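Predict fold of Peptidoglycan bridge formation glycyltransferase FemA/FemB family protein; 357 aa.
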Amino acid sequence: MRQFTARFATPEEIQAWDSHVTANPNGGNMLQAKAYAAVKAEHGWKPLYLAYETSDYTSFNLVLEKHVPLLGKYWYMIKGPDVASPDDLPGIFEANRRFCQAQARGVFAIRIEPDVEATDETRALLAREGLVKMPDLQPNDHTAIVDIAPEPEVVLKSFSSRGRNAVRRAIREGAEVVTAEPTEENFRAMFNLMGQVQQGQKNVQVRSFEYFKAFWGNFIAAGQGRLLFTYEDGKPSVGAFVVNYGRKGTYKDGGSLPRRKQYGDSHLIQWTAMNQLKELGITSYDLCGTPPAAELKNPEHEYYGLGLFKTSFTKTITDFVGCYDQVISPLKYKLWSAAGEKIARGLYVRRRHQPFY
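Predicted 3D structure, encoded as tokens:
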């Protein structure tokens, strides 16, 4: 097992945060970006910036902290830790324990969700370390990732026949994808398109327009995001917000009008995003959310329709391990598990009308 030490990042490292995160072994994640930290700082979380050091690499990870009355500090290492191998996770957990005893006192639990693929071996490793499996929080803990490193024609040919035909027909019939300016009007239009999709989903707690406006605006200002539209009758009909972060592209948000006239526009907007991001050096494109691989053909799954659409670009589903809790204080965590988390989430939703996480 590799030995790690944990520390808070220096002011200079925080200033250049994104360059450090994208140099992590797995290239970091957009939800560890400085632009995202600024959004969460306005929605109930305190961003912390941690560095884990071992003999041959340093992993920089964003941690979101929330103070829980009577219990102390709860940490959420969103989409982290970023490690070179799952075998490095125990070293990170031990570093967490030492760090919370010495410099980060008052932390009673740390929620992690590393981008480590779910296998029998990784699940067993996490169980041996005493971590507690929790429900997944991020939509792309199960996802479809397209390799866009090859030449565009090679990538297009890798799509299913349905995906290829949709793209080619949309192009043939003159459909056009436009990169929209980051204006209030365009953000409102995107938010409204997202609402059209979410109306048919179960258990969806929609974040506020202000939250999305901040997210989109921050990433665009950092040169890490763009908003794409197709139009019908002069109005946006399909929208996609995509992120470029390090070597990774992500289809973060999307929406569309029902009963559109143009066939293939939703496929074309994805194909356009892939090609635009490829020009920026992006080599993989995360379509951000499908059913788990084992549930892909289950029509009762809430992401079934999304799975049908996204697997027209790639048949491969990646299942990550999802969320686990590392227990720092067993007594406080027992109270948190028994009632604390439920109460905290309920109070936050009632007060803020936003999801806790």
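The first helix runs from residue 11 to 15.
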